[in-house]
Amino acid sequence: MTTVAPRPTARVITTHYIDGAFVESHGREVMDIIRPTDGRVIGRVTLADEEDTRRAIAAARRAFATFGRSTREERSRILRRLHEAASARVADLTAAMVEEYGGVARFADVIVQSGVTAFLAADKALREIQWTRRWDNTTVTLEPVGVAGLITAWNANALFICLKLASAVAAGCTVVIKPSELSSLQTQVLVEALHAADLPNGLLNVVTGLGNVVGAELVRNPDVDKISFTGSVAVGQTIMRDGAATMKRVTLELGGKSPTVLLDDADLDQAIPAALTMAFLNSGQACGAGTRLLVPKSRLDAVNRAIREAMQAFPAGDPSDPKTGVGPMATQRQYERVQSYIRKGIEEGAEVLVGGEGHPTGLEAGYYVKPTVFVGVDNHMTIAQEEIFGPVLCVIPYDSEDEAIRIANDSKYGLHAAVIGTDVRRARHAASQLRAGRVVINGMTDDPQAPWGGFKFSGVGREYGRYGIEAFLEPRAILEMNS
Ligand code: NAD
Question: How far is CA 431 from the centre of its chain?
Fold first, then answer.
């Protein structure tokens, strides 16, 4: 294993981060990094193989022997150092997310900031958790689960890495991160930033490679105790099944098809822009995107007019332009996936209110799609049931509030949901009936101490705040006989 000095962000990435150093890849496969605004190759990454992964796991295992016994004060100091180190590169991280992934500037900045904030939020939660409980002759302590494998998706890579790392460190775990191979430049900037936090060697290891190579090794390796995964349902199911052989603890953050319930007293001037913001979050490539808008039949015409008007604030375009609402899809494959769903919606009889198939005019070069709103959608249609992961909103009519709740819950997913209405008591009542891990009222909002995660096929377990840290802990009870 050759050790090389950290260097300015490279467009040709040949190293992984193992045992506190950037080391040359043992894996030899090279992948192009493609810019989604024009499909051009902007860099190359050498992918890790099983051997790189095993070296990273071994380093994390060695480090756990010490870090697993660290005090809360030591972990707290490390979290603050991580926050400081990541904060120093916010602008670079945002720029990398815009260029490599096509994230729109106005959203990329929010994503990166919330990643950086995750370290401070974990520090706060760490102080609030009751780590030891005693009664009679029993003492229960919360112990780190061990070495954690953290596997991330491409759509908000920096956020997922920071969030999972923060929770794991707060718990006293050491980690091997397998970022999405589609986020190599973003990962490189972030790892360079985190290297400056001067962590104990082996606490943080990062190996970029393919899911079925590096990810699969993490899942099957007996020296990994826990997998925290963000990605698709199909891969989540593989992890749960294959992880069973070594009794892996798993947290799975999977897909969504989130409903926004527009109550009949909603003020459309506020409600529609809020609903569209949730639908086109991260260019629609967001697990929590509110892609089903449930509208009372009595207000359909007014809602359609309001949507047409409000869509002007969501133009497709260059992601680095702060006025752009929807950037390109991350890959050619994503572009085709979104096109196939728009086609399917038309075939199944939904009506295109805005957008439709093909590239927006003047944006033919990259992976741009037209932000699309379908009306007259039946909740049983494919476009209302399956996660499209693109800027496609389905407007679904309902007769009564009870029917709206039934439609909202008639999904295999249950990650996020929203209720919009003027009477807050009514909105709260509707929210309390929704089968989703998070429900927001009157617009997208966040709280880094509130749990995030899904009911049903949206996943297993929770992240953020104390819930996220608890996912990396095991309770140990010590019971004493009366002497
Ligand atoms: P994906 O499942 O294809 O990949 C996710 C990660 O898993 C990648 O790093 C990939 O390399 C890895 N992987 C692939 N095969 C693997 C295997 N056999 N074993 C281990 N790891 C493997 O998902 P994606 O396309 O990167 O992301 C999009 C999906 O992620 C969407 O479904 C979206 O809803 C979901 N997502 C969920 C959340 C959430 O918080 N719930 C957040 C963001 C994205």
Answer: 23
